[in-house]
UniProtKB/TrEMBL annotation:
Cofactors: pyridoxal 5'-phosphate
Residues the record lists as N6-(pyridoxal phosphate)lysine modifications: K67
Protein family per UniProt: Belongs to the Orn/Lys/Arg decarboxylase class-II family. LysA subfamily.
Residues annotated as domain Orn/DAP/Arg decarboxylase 2 N-terminal: 39-303
Pathway involvement of the protein, from the record: Amino-acid biosynthesis; L-lysine biosynthesis via DAP pathway; L-lysine from DL-2,6-diaminopimelate: step 1/1
Gene: lysA
Name of the protein: Diaminopimelate decarboxylase
Gene Ontology annotations of biological process type: lysine biosynthetic process via diaminopimelate
Length: 447
């Protein structure tokens, strides 16, 4: 994050707080968030999209995708910076509401929302429920009718555009669970997307707000957003031709990629926003339809780079490795966390960067692998990194860019307690989410 720097004595600080103080005050492992950096990224996304869409003559809402990391304070920061909040479950919705995010500024996603989740959203007066199947159209309509309310909905569609990183996070190709296809049905009839849009129009307890598309995550080539926008805007025009209803809004989802390793490129919000706004305007001009209001849902790009994980090294072990052409030594550096606080390397083969942050070292760098303390050999934190050859037990080690999908995908595997989320700002730190205790773990077990 932009508030991370190495002091002249070699110790690293986050927002003016040294890592030794962070470790002493909060223990390790700990997720450390640079609050000012989070806010600056949230602001940058909002301002970039607002400026780009104002320039082509329409408005935009930026929703922070809470699945990346949602705590009460984080939801407040997003709201303070003028963002709405995208939630993916009743649990995320509850956190947003606890943070006093107004219902109107919240969206609810999910491909299999429970009745209780839908009712909680209706009672909160959410600004939108994104529906994901025909079954759900009817379910949400029935629940809203039962409550005597009319709820704004968007229909999530799949555009056939592939984008982003690993297959598990690339969501808009056809053979997966999300959304309704814009392709004609197998018998050549109406597409599932059009059928769902028309089903929404037929239910008085639903107001068809718009069409939603999310094409994937960790996207570094913005052309996918333009391709998806083209498909969605064409669908909007088709629906208008068939029914006379031109929907007000189009949501283009999240997925803006970040840098995980030194020297990697990230998507910059301003050029992406200009490109997307330009193509939305061009496609609408081609189709002869007025511009919709747009929304986007960045998660990773706002919180990912603003977070790091602080660990303590416990053991160091050189392992001799032989492959086809050489024999070399890899230093296995074990830290006090692992796949329970960051599943991404094991699940997606995700790459990270680590540094020894508590001190300077003049030692020659050696090839190292940072591993956790779980009972699996795939429990890898950083697959490959050069660390000072004198790295040793007690060293503080930081892994960068862990703000997104670290804490939010954390587990208690092997009975580890989940680390705290600590915010650093202006030379002080405070706990946003406390570390779990053994009492938390045992309290759930009723014997
Ligand atoms: N909107 C929708 C509808 C989504 O499904 C997602 C992510 C987002 C927004 C936010 O995407 P972002 O801007 O953060 O890329 N656990 C995976 C990422 C899964 C993303 C799922 N949906 C990972 O750790 O890479």
């Amino acid at each position: 994050s932009s508030g991370v720097r190495r002091r002249p004595d070699g110790e690293v600080e986050v927002a003016g707080v040294g890592v030794a103080a962070l470790a002493a005050d909060h223990g390790t492992p700990a997720y450390v968030l640079d609050e000012a950096d989070f806010r600056a990224r949230a602001r940058a996304y909002r301002q970039a999209f607002e400026a780009a869409f104002a320039a082509v003559g329409t408005g935009v809402d930026v929703y922070y995708a809470g699945k990346a990391l949602l705590t009460v304070a984080v939801a407040r920061w997003a709201r303070d910076e003028g963002l709405c909040v995208d939630t993916a479950s009743g649990g995320e919705l509850a956190v947003a509401l606890r943070a006093d995010v107004p219902g109107a500024a919240i969206g609810l996603h999910g491909n299999n929302k429970s009745d209780a989740e839908v009712l909680a959203a209706l009672d909160a007066g959410v600004g939108r429920i994104i529906v994901d199947s025909l079954v759900e159209v009817q379910r949400v309509a029935d629940l809203a009718a039962g409550r005597g309310v009319v709820v704004p909905v968007m229909v999530r569609v799949t555009t056939g555009v592939h984008a982003g990183g690993h297959e598990y996070i690339s969501t808009a190709h056809e053979d997966q669970k999300f959304g309704l296809s814009v392709a004609p049905a197998a018998d050549g009839g109406t597409s599932p997307a059009l059928a769902a849009l028309e089903a929404v129009l037929a239910r008085p307890s639903l107001r068809l707000l718009g069409i939603h598309s999310h094409i994937g995550s960790q996207i570094l080539d913005p052309s996918g957003f333009e391709a998806a926008a083209r498909v969605v805007l064409r669908l909007r025009a088709d629906l208008a031709a068939r029914t006379g209803v031109l929907v007000d809004e189009v949501d283009l989802g999240g997925g803006y990629g970040i840098a995980y390793l030194p020297g990697e490129e990230a998507l910059e919000p301003a050029p992406v926003a200009r490109e997307v706004a330009g193509s939305v305007a061009a496609v609408c001009a081609e189709l002869g339809t007025p511009l919709p209001r747009i929304s986007v849902e960045p998660g990773r790009a706002i919180v990912g780079p603003a977070g790091l994980t602080l660990y303590t090294v416990g053991t160091v072990k050189p392992v001799t490795v032989s492959d086809d052409d050489a024999t070399f030594t890899r230093l296995y550096v074990s830290v006090d966390g692992g796949m329970s606080d960051n599943i991404r390397p094991a699940l997606y083969g995700a790459q990270y960067h680590a540094e020894v942050v508590g001190r300077a070292s003049g030692a020659e760098p050696v090839l190292a692998r940072v591993v956790g303390k779980h009972c699996e050999s795939g429990d890898i934190v950083v697959h490959q990194v050069m660390l000072p050859g004198d790295v040793r037990a007690g060293d503080l080690l930081a892994v960068a860019a862990t703000g997104a999908y670290g804490r939010s995908m954390a587990s208690n595997y092997n009975g580890l307690t989940r680390p705290p989320v600590v915010a650093a700002v202006d030379g002080t730190s405070r706990v946003l989410v406390r570390r779990e205790t053994l009492d938390d773990l045992l309290g759930l077990d009723l014997g």
